[in-house]
């Protein structure tokens, strides 16, 4: 497909194609009131922003399941991320507490009479070291008795400490926390609104539509990095790439989108960390798309991406999974996601006929066929490339 050619497949990317009607959230508000609390739970959310968000949702689910009162989660200061942000710096704390008030009690501090029992030192509180992906049954059998006895327990670390295979009532609390209670703080949401307005204004020729690309090509994602090599392990980058385990380079992402038919004046919001070998690869992507806005210049990526018409993910991880789910929730099951089939693309990109024309405009000489366009309900929501 020529880079600038239009097609029915490309035109459909901008359209909602669900024929059976929209999906509706299943989060119903509990108006029955809460029984007396069994005690207080303190959790330490560790990892990056997305792992911390997972921890918060799990903490709400566990607290609700154990009929406990949740202390606003503490964000662990990570030696790699070095982010000193507190909960209220990222999220609207009052909104979080109010949204959950009929389902889970949430407080910003432990009562004085409780803290006196532990010498006003949280390190004196019994800490559970819970195995990753533990079931809710484990919390009921092992954590609840101690909670009732002590009235205050802590769980640290708490990332990935609750199994995804949980009863519907527990999953409901996770969804309530993730999609309703967790709202970005005022400074972040205000900035996000300004950025979305700016993106839509810049793409006025395309009815305000733009594409968001999550480009995971930071240092450490390149196969064969010495720090990830285990003693005695042989890294075979070529084999790993053919198996679809390598992230797409910036140029390959540009070639893929141009091969689908997106012209070089399509507005792109590019969310990425520091690009590996960025001086070499990043300019090539910018040649494919002249109107590209960078996250490092436009700040908070998570608040801007959910409102894009099309989201392109180039590698797995917590972030794209969160975003795909949130976009579907916000749009009644409708939201376009382009997920490349990296195994097939590795073969296509090995073709020597793929390159740049004399004008420096990216194009793919052989066709990159669009797979079935699938929706969340009728499998017409995701576009599989390759």
TrEMBL record:
Give the source's domain of life in one word: Eukaryota
Q: Which InterPro entries does this one have? A: FucosylTrfase_pln (IPR024709), GDP-Fuc_O-FucTrfase (IPR019378)
Is Acyltransferase a UniProt keyword of this protein?
no
Q: Which GO terms describe its biological process?
A: fucose metabolic process
Give one GO molecular function term. glycosyltransferase activity
Q: Which PANTHER family match?
A: O-FUCOSYLTRANSFERASE FAMILY PROTEIN, PROTEIN ESMERALDA 1
Q: Which family does it belong to?
A: Belongs to the glycosyltransferase GT106 family.
The protein here is known as O-fucosyltransferase family protein
Per the UniProt record, the lineage of the source organism begins with: Eukaryota, Viridiplantae, Streptophyta, Embryophyta, Tracheophyta
